[in-house]
Amino acid sequence: MGVAFGHWCDAVLSYLANLDKASDKSISLETFSSEVFPAYEIMFNTWMTSGESKVRLATVQAIGNMCAVMPQEQFEAQLPRIIPGVLALYKKEKNHLPITQALTMVLSVGVKNGSQMESQITNVLNTIHPLACQPGIFEQPEHVKNANELLRCFEIIGYLFSDMLISYLLLRLDIVKQKNVTIRSGTINIIRHLVTRLGMSHSHSHSLAITHSTTHCTIRYSIDAKLTESKHLILSGIKPLVESETNLDAKRVLAQAVIAMASQGYLALEGGESLVEFIVRQSAITDLEVEQFDKAVC
Length: 298
Description:
mainly alpha; Leucine-rich Repeat Variant; two-stranded antiparallel sheet; 2 strands; 69% helix; elongated
């Protein structure tokens, strides 16, 4: 039943996304929204706590899609329940992809509506940040889809809460406070993604279009005007790392981030020359240094 209702929401969203080609152009979200909330209440209150994993995962994915069809005032009222409910499933389930897809849709709808999500963002970041920093998550085929969906969550948060997000990430780059190389490397990779995606969106348009990975429909909303200001904040956080990072794995990811930053004009800002010097130094790493690192890892 949960799967069927999720597909029904998919169909509604897909129909509305292609309304210019539809036979009945009078149809809108309001046509169906009154039918969504009663079903949501049953699914969230009963099926999300089912003893069967398949039921829970099908339900959470359906709820994610239902949020896009739900009346805005009801979505706003339920948001303090929906986000913690979705996040709680990460500890229960081995298959995280349906959960992350649901979270992506909830965040997309919330940002589109300008929802008061700020009180929920730290909880979201504390949950998904360690997941996105897991070793090999972008190299293991069974985890790649979920890893990319996690990056989409950071991206969506960045459109409305850029300062909050960047400050959160930069705190986890402090080489003195953050001794875990995996966390530092994962955080750098998230920043690289944000630099590329948010920079591209800001340079081409003042509106955002996110296509949901399962529904293939598009949600549009305005971009945070403070993204340009975030460049200086990101650069100030990366600069100490390029001068002090000693781990070769972290340096590799850092070099990829610097290249992404170069394409978005970061290196022309004050302090950008230190990032150029970092790339030059990495080009001169000796075979002996690589060999010593490999031995230390083994």
